[in-house]
# Entry
Amino acid sequence: MRRLTIVVSALVVALLIPVQSASAVDEVNTKRFRQAVTVGGIMSHERALQRIANRNGGTRASGTPGYEASVEYVEGRLQAAGYETTRQEFTFPFFRETTPAELQQVSPTPTDYETGTFDYSGSGDVTGTVVPIDIDIPPPAEAGTSDSGCEPEDFPPASPTEPQVALIQRGFCFFEVKAENAAAAGYDAVIIFNEGQEGRQELFIGTLGTPQDIPVVGLSFADASALYTAAQAGPVSVRVFTETEVDLEAKTWNVTADTPSGDADKVLVVGAHLDSVIEGPGINDNGSGTSLLLEMAEELSENNIRVRQKVRFAFWGAEESGLLGSEHYVENLSDDELGSIFANLNFDMVGSPNYVRFVYDGDGSDTELAGPPGSAEIESIFTDYFASQGLASAPTEFSGRSDYGPFIAVGIPAGGLFTGAEGVKTEEEAEIYGGTAGVAYDVNYHQAGDTINNVNTKALFEMGDAAAHTLLTLAKSRTGFFEDGSRMARKTLAADSFDFRGSHAVR
# Structure
């Protein structure tokens, strides 16, 4: 992220966002646009993306024919609506599992475990002794706090003669760090298991961000607890098998399109990632965000809605490989281009079947990290809209798990909507939003079951209206200044506050 920091430091004065608070926004009547953006229109694109996946091996992942067909579909629809499109090419490390992972206890109690290959795992067939690495059982009370494997000194030096397998708990540092620390200490394979708190107990498969040399697989908390207990009693031997494919120079694309009207010095970038994971068609993650963007772009054009600020619709590639498309886009902006972007809206999963109306916590009032100045105002536009409709909403953190990450890293205000992924709905959330407590927001997250039948159209309706309202409010605001007329410099957030290599599942 060093280049990003250097770029933003040149922007001593920059336009922030055309609002100070929700009440400071020029009155914008968004009703006509909201009525034009329909669930039927969104679902028509969802069906097209499902058909594309069906014709291309069940996936639309970057680096596959299914993704290229998705790019062509988006370009075709935008061009038919009167937009000029830009296809931005870049290369990335493509990864796929070519044979399902295997994990067995060989001795003292032969056992087959449910497992999976972490993205960017190396290939290997390793039989070795399990070595627990700074494990907390029972788990810490707070999720995401176990430091198992986060420091090189957590690892006893591995045997130089006998294969050994590191058993590591999920926690606050990134999976890539855990795997690299294990490899540096001489371990031949890694098992990463879920941390153990409510919502972090099932088998969990994440991404390592960059290609690794040793096999890395996942394990549930219950299975890992039993394995850990056995290892405390005496030597335990396991077999870890993975077979993977990596292409370090795979080609993929971002697609962007600007509204013909609007001030080119005040650009609102509205983004969603276009790719799915290899394992499935990604019709909620993130066909839902993609389809919402397409529907809004088409309706802006069809209804001849003129905007004061230019709107740039952006469809990102290789998000599931670590936010690589949005990161490439931001890194390759000139100083002037970066300075022209006053805000970013991000829509990543807006149709989860067991949904909550999550809004990114721009002011940091409920989560650990606020967005750059202006993010609080974006949050308030969303939350005020929901309140005006008698709908509850809840804050969700800027975790760095979606394509707003590279924007807020250079001080661009951001906001957006999210209906939930692998997290488990609480009793309180079920009372407020409906649905089923104790069940994931999206039980098919990152799986083959993320199909057209996985999308909640009620969520699409509610989130689609909120997205249309916020987009048009920002795009038609009159001033481009705060109420006191000042322009404010952006502040660069610490690059290590976020990890842009892991998509939704980095830690």
